[in-house]
Amino acid sequence: MLDRATAPDQDRLGRFAERFARFMGTARFLIYMTLVVAVWIGWNWVVPSDLRFDKYPFIFLTLMLSLQASYAAPLILLAQNRQELRDRVITEQDRQANARAHADMEFLAREVASLRMALGEVATRDFLRSELRDLLEELEERQRADAEDGEPAAE
């Protein structure tokens, strides 16, 4: 097994693989590859025979494209694996955040329930108003009764 000093820098290779895979998925890459193949075929078709380096049926071009594909496939897989690891970490973080939010909501629901129970024992504004209205009516009735009996009203 290789120790850390002799092992290749996996993170650097992974970043390169991601950049390479990202570039291969662009229209620019397709245009570049098309231009390279067109120039390659054009050169080897049009120029004099002594300047051609890959005569028809372009075996060397096929070899180069196969070589490019043989390197591209593992690099793309490496980039996908790194993305999968990131997605797994993000999913785990989301799961933990959801669990915390769920616990917080349960706590708040219990707090609201306890506040409702406590409010059931506390006089509400409407209750106090109705009690004061009843008391006021009772006082007014006494004043009227006292006025009818001839007693001076207490102020």
Average residue pLDDT: 86
Which structural category do the helix and sheet elements fall into? mainly alpha
Q: Quaternary status of these chains?
A: single chain
Distance between the termini: 102 Å
State the helicity in percent bands.
over 70%
Question: Could you tell me the strand content as a percent range?
Answer: under 5%
Query: Number of folding domains?
Result: 1
Task: Give helix and strand order, one letter per element, not per position.
Answer: HHHH
Question: How many distinct beta strands?
Answer: 0
Major pleated sheet: none
The dominant shape is rod-shaped
Can you tell me the residue ranges where pLDDT is under 50 for at least 5 consecutive residues? none
- What's the gyration radius in Å? 43 Å
Number of separate helices: 4
What does this structure look like?
It comes from Nocardioides pocheonensis. This is DUF1003 domain-containing protein. Pfam families: DUF1003. With 155 residues, the chain is mainly α. It has one domain. Helix 1 packs across helix 3. The N and C termini lie far apart (102 Å). The mean pLDDT is 86.
